[in-house]
Amino acid sequence: MKLVCHNCGQELPDDSAFCQYCGSSDIGDAEIKQGKEPEIGYITKTERVAEYTENYKGKFKIAVIAAVIFALITCYFGYQWNYYQSMYREVNEELKTTKRQLTTAQNNANSYQKKAGYFDTIKSKASSASNTNFFASNTVLKNPNKTRVVFDINYNGQYSISWEYDNEIILTHGNTSNGLVYIDVTYRGTGVKTITCTNSVNNQKIVIYCIGN
What is this structure's pTM? Predict the structure, then answer.
């Protein structure tokens, strides 16, 4: 009988109190067969190293897989974060632009409302100065440039019209092919100027207001 370490399976000197290979005190007799490791029931050093190696490989694989999964998750959420941050910046810029446009539109609307009130006053005056025997397609002209105004006179084609207008107004008048009277008006001045049309048949008048910048 030989003295062996029951922990690592190594053969030991007969006077050993502990294993000089693994430090275990679990030593005792074991039958050694020539060319073979100790009998089953004892783990040899080679077997233990192999066991440790397998355990290490398994743990290493798990660690690698976990690291790869963690890296993928980190990359995914990093990409999503950057994407939504970019989207947020774009939407925020669009919102700022829309607010500026709304402010500009509101200011323009307020300005147009004031001008509309002013034009309505002028139009009301023009309407009160006209009569049922005359019809004009436009009685208030804003910065006219050869703007045509047509008059329909219901006196069986017999009429006599006189024109009075400010010096800054360029006016050309004539007859249309179907017998209507027209004027072409150009005004590049400022403020409000007038054109007065008088029908000598009944001495009725119509006033056209020209509005400049």
Answer: 0.36
| Alpha-carbon 160 to chain mean position | 64
DSSP label of 195 = E
Pick from 184, 201, 195, 185: nearest CA to 133: 201
CA–CA–CA angle 87, 72, 54 (5° rounding): 175
Distance CA 135, CA 181 (A): 10
> Which residue type occupies 149?
V
Q: What is the pLDDT of residues 60-87, one digit of tens each?
A: 888 889 889 998 998 888 888 888 888 8
CB 179 within 8 A of CB 157: yes
**What's the rounded Cα separation, in Å, for the pair 183 and 150?**
7
Is pLDDT at 170 greater than 80 in this prediction? yes
SS3 151: strand
**Between 132 and 212, the higher pLDDT residue:** 212
Q: Name the residue among 29, 210, 15 with its Cα closest to residue 123.
A: 210
Measure the CA–CA gap between 203 and 200, rounded to whole angstroms.
5
Q: In what order do the strands lie in the sheet with 181-187?
A: 147-151, 181-187, 169-175
